[in-house]
Design goal:
It is built from no helices and 11 strands.
């Protein structure tokens, strides 16, 4: 099992910055990808950014490209999301995600409890 704990959410004015952190614990060695998702009220959960533990390849949602940066301490399986130039539409609960193979070609997704980011206009 993998446990994920996020921190760093809060209230910020439009144009400001926040940094989210996510720490993984438990069976972390086989985690091969980690990322951030978000869910705004009345909307589906969407990918914000993700990062491969091996090689460090990243991908970002178009809406955050150039404003958000995902990074990681691979050995610790800890990831960060630096959010700059925040907009009111970035307001959401942000969830940390980790993917770990569970055998037989199946991957298991793990989720944190979420951290609220509120951007005021």
């Amino acid at each position: 099992q993998v446990q994920l704990v996020e921190s760093g959410g809060g209230l910020v004015e439009a144009g400001g910055s926040l940094r989210l952190s996510c720490a993984a614990s438990g069976a972390i060695l086989r985690i091969n990808r980690m990322g951030w998702y978000r869910q705004a009220p009345g909307k589906s959960r969407e990918l914000v950014a993700s990062l491969a533990m091996a090689g460090g390849s990243t991908n970002y949602a178009d809406s955050v490209m150039g404003r958000f940066i995902i990074s990681a301490d691979v050995a610790e399986r800890r990831i960060y999301l630096q959010m700059n130039s925040l907009k009111p539409e970035d307001t959401a609960v942000y969830y940390c995600n980790a993917i770990r193979p569970s055998g037989y070609g199946v991957n298991t997704d793990y989720w944190g409890q979420g951290t609220l980011v509120t951007v005021s206009s």
